[in-house]
Design brief:
The protein is an alpha+beta fold and 189 residues long. It has a four-stranded antiparallel beta sheet with strand order 4-5-3-6, with helices on both faces. Strands 1-2 form a two-stranded antiparallel sheet. The longest helix is centred in the middle third of the chain and has 20 residues. Helix 2 packs across helix 3.
């Protein structure tokens, strides 16, 4: 029985395009689709799961810390303000961005058990740059990866953000911000 289950597990690995920065090991090269364990979480089973985070393995390889969720650009935040009538009389775009970020951050933490985490993006265009991610989980521990099987709010979170569910993806967080979130004891990543 165990041999059969092990072979089933190996069948779930899928090839994926490289998302690693040049010169780094690509943790997304072998992705595993989690089994459906909770009927309310079936949508999460469509997404691949990266290997567990390792700062350094015995053979010297590393697996980068990744977070799963929805990437957010400043253009998206401005559109979010328009759709939700946030700060309708505010002329200053930066203040509108700030208010949208606060509204999203507050709502996702209270209603969707998610958290905003800064992303690494070197796009020179301020408004098309992915500034942060609405993070649902990470590959930091097995407990966090298990959220790919148990997180029940992805569809409602996508609806709140006005994004398709398929827009969720694995991303590289800003290292300093991710460490601060971990130190603050926030269980998402």
């Amino acid at each position: 029985m165990e041999l059969h289950m092990e072979s089933e597990r190996k069948k779930t690995f899928l090839p994926a395009p490289s998302t690693a920065p040049p010169g780094l090991h690509d943790p997304m090269s072998t992705l595993q689709v989690p089994p459906k364990t909770n009927p309310g979480c079936a949508v999460m089973a469509r997404f691949p799961v990266p290997p567990l985070y390792r700062s350094r393995t015995s053979d010297g390889e590393t697996t980068d810390l990744l977070i799963f969720g929805f990437s957010i650009t400043n253009n998206f935040l401005l559109d979010f303000c328009e759709r939700n009538r946030l700060a309708p009389n505010e002329e200053d775009a930066v203040r509108r961005l700030y208010k949208a970020h606060l509204h999203i951050g507050y709502t996702i933490e209270r209603k969707f058990d998610a958290h905003c985490v800064d992303l690494v993006d070197d796009d020179p265009d301020l408004f098309s740059r992915e500034t942060f991610c609405v993070a649902v989980t990470s590959n930091r521990t097995n407990k966090h990866l298990k959220r790919m099987q148990t997180y029940p709010h992805l569809e409602k979170l996508a609806e709140f953000l006005g994004l398709p569910v398929d827009a969720a993806e694995w991303m590289y967080p800003d290292r300093a911000d991710a460490l601060q979130v971990i130190q603050d004891g926030i269980g998402v990543i």
